[in-house]
Amino acid sequence: MSALPVLQQPRTPVDNVQLTTAILGHIQVIAARERRMRLNWVPSHVGLRGNEAADEAAREATRQPAVTFTVLPSIHRTKVLAETCHCQCRGAAVSLVVQTSRQAAWHAQATDNQPLHLVQQLPRAEEVILHRFRFGYGTVEELRDGFEDRPCEHCLHQGCVQ
């Protein structure tokens, strides 16, 4: 986007924030002194006083071996990088948990780690059962199945579940 539309827009700039903010600050200082200012777009810079000097300074800057002024990334770019890092770290953590946990592996396979959006409200007891089932925990009936043939430690009856 060219400089004039960026300076005219009412919303906060997304790119080149430092430069745009500095220019807008200078414009406000000039306006506070009750001076009029007009910004004009000139399609060709040829013949403008100072343009050749600015072009020469730009050419000279490209010949320098190192960066003399660090341009900070825009706020938008910083947010994109932070979100990308967050997603990559989260993905690595989920992969590690899936490799080490049977329940997490089952949940990842069954739901692709996406949240379950229930169409209707369920009673709390049913939500708990569904939640436990989604995470691969056994139900009470499945737990009892493993104890049917074992004698009770307290009363020594076969298959007693108390």
From TrEMBL:
<feature type="domain" description="RNase H type-1">
    <location>
        <begin position="1"/>
        <end position="63"/>
    </location>
</feature>
<dbReference type="InterPro" id="IPR002156">
    <property type="entry name" value="RNaseH_domain"/>
</dbReference>
<dbReference type="GO" id="GO:0004523">
    <property type="term" value="F:RNA-DNA hybrid ribonuclease activity"/>
</dbReference>
<dbReference type="GO" id="GO:0003676">
    <property type="term" value="F:nucleic acid binding"/>
</dbReference>
<protein>
    <recommendedName>
        <fullName>RNase H type-1 domain-containing protein</fullName>
    </recommendedName>
</protein>
<dbReference type="InterPro" id="IPR012337">
    <property type="entry name" value="RNaseH-like_sf"/>
</dbReference>
<dbReference type="InterPro" id="IPR036397">
    <property type="entry name" value="RNaseH_sf"/>
</dbReference>
